[in-house]
Amino acid sequence: MPRPIPIAILAAALLLAAPAPAAEAPTRAEYVERLEAICQPDALATQKAMKGARADVRKERFKAAAGKFAKATAIFGGTVSQIGAVPRPSADKTRLDKWFGYLNRQEEYLRQITAALRAEKGIKAQRLTARFIHNGNLANNVVLAFGFDYCSFKFSRYG
Amino acid sequence: MSRPSLSRVACLAAAIAVASAVLATAGAERSIGEQTQRGVLVSSLKGELRPLTLPRDRPAPVAVHLEGRLRTADGSLLPRVTEFAIGLPVQGILSTRGLPVCPLRRLHDTRTGEALAACRGALVGRGRLDAVVALPGQTPFPVRARLLAFNSRVHGRRAVLLHAGAGNPPTSSVLPMLVRPGVGRFGTELVGRIATALGPWPRLRSFEITLHRRYAYRGRVHSFISASCPLPPALTAGFFSFARASYKLAGGGGIATGIARSCRARSLR
Asked: How many structural domains comprise chain A?
């Protein structure tokens, strides 16, 4: 007759064989806290990178302004991919999908503004800036209830 | 000419209805302005500069129109605002040179008409204010007041007196807004202590104000607020931090909403 398997070994074997539990979805408050921790240094870095950009545009130093916008675009892109990887509260999935849609569009506008400034196309840059601001406000409205500070769009951070 | 068929009329009516709904939605979205939320409290602000097209090289008279609103996301009673401030753009110039001054005492216990009669020369703006009055043991009730803004001086400092006159119940109060240098992109700030001026019961819900006054002084036309749109010839429009409404709340904390707007530069001749 085969020897019985000790219960502890059996339990351990079953535990190892069981599939790993899926990462638990955070609450909205936990999610906001995690995102703000990512956004804060990036928001401050954006502010630093964009310092004087508006003055550059006003004085037709488009190339200098383009360099600052390029830095801001890189920072923004990095932030979006970092916060995109954070597990989302399941109840807010649709809303957050919409928000990330706006954020991707924001990044695209920043890229286009940089290109327009680099090509010294001031009027094009000005039109894109209007869209960038409008899109940023729409993004803020989607996640208004989250009460974001550093992760929300603030025009004052851009030069 | 043939008469339109019923189905074409129905299609047209449906198209108009859809278009109206889209326009109404767009209007409603526009009418909110920019919003900020802290906890359950939501602050919104919208505003505009009139006219939008301004000279590039020198300030011109403008009117600043602002609409601010506070609401709670869950419909609970609004918190008490103790201090209220409006930040105006650094591009704007506030001038009171030669403008008559309305002393605070002249507005005490006056209705809107009486306040206007007493200080018409110092008038710099008009608007509207909505508040909820929450008296202990009573159901909160709304108060709608007409706002008049007068140029003044309080304790030797430049100020704008906001006279709020309500018809029902017939009440009036005066909120002195001190003019002080702003922070960051806001060159000027108007700051009023609501708790001191109006007492603990009113809870600010919304305000709407247009600041504008043109007046003659020593043979020249002056404006209470002037602004330019300093852009190079290669650009026609610029964006700037236009205004910020900030509220300090009883028990600590606060909320602020800033808005960015554009100006158009007058074409070069």
From this structure: 1
Q: Is residue A6 part of a domain?
A: no
Beta strand extents in chain B (DSSP E only) = 34-38, 41-50, 53-54, 60-61, 63-72, 81-89, 93-94, 123-133, 141-154, 157-166, 171-181, 186-193, 202-211, 214-217, 220-223, 225-227, 237-249, 254-265
Q: For B165-203, how does the pLDDT look when each residue is reduced to its tens digit (9 = 90+)?
A: 998 888 899 999 999 998 778 889 999 998 776 777 889
Which CATH number is A78's domain given? 1.20.120
Which band of pLDDT confidence, cut at 50, 70 and 90, is reported for residue A5? low
Q: Among partner residues A59, A122, A140, which is closest to B35 by beta-carbon distance?
A: A140
Backbone angles phi, psi at B239, to 5 degrees: -120, 140
- Domain annotation covers residue A149: yes
Note the pTM of the prediction, 2 decimals.
0.82
Out of B37, B232, B241, the one facing A60 most closely (by C-beta) is B232
Q: What is the ipTM of this complex?
A: 0.76
**Residue A20 domain flag:** no
Rounded distance, CA A69 to CA A109, Å?
Answer: 10
Q: Compute the distance between CA of residue B154 and CA of residue A35 in angstroms, rounded to an integer.
A: 45
A70 lies in which domain range?
Answer: 27-157
Whether the CB of B187 is below 8 Å from some CB of chain A: the reply is no
Rounded alpha-carbon distances, angstroms, from residue B110 to A113, B159, B170, B174, B246: 54, 19, 11, 9, 28
Tokens of B193: 């202590």
Residue A18 within a domain: no
**Which of A141, A151, A158 to mutate to probe the B interface, most B CBs <10 Å?**
A141
Partner residue opposite A156 with nearest CB, options B37, B230, B241: B241
Name every chain B residue with its beta carbon within 8 A of the beta carbon of A156: 184-185, 241, 258, 260
The pLDDT assigned to A64 comes to: 95
CA of B173 vs chain A CAs: smallest distance (Å): 34
Separation of alpha carbons B128 and B78, rounded Å: 18
Considering only CB atoms, B260 lies closest to which of A123, A133, A147, namely A133
Tell me which of B31, B34, B35 to substitute to probe the interface with A (most A C-beta atoms closer than 10 Å): B34
Cβ neighbours of A86 (radius 10 Å): 14
> A60 vs B230: CB contact, 8 Å cut-off?
no
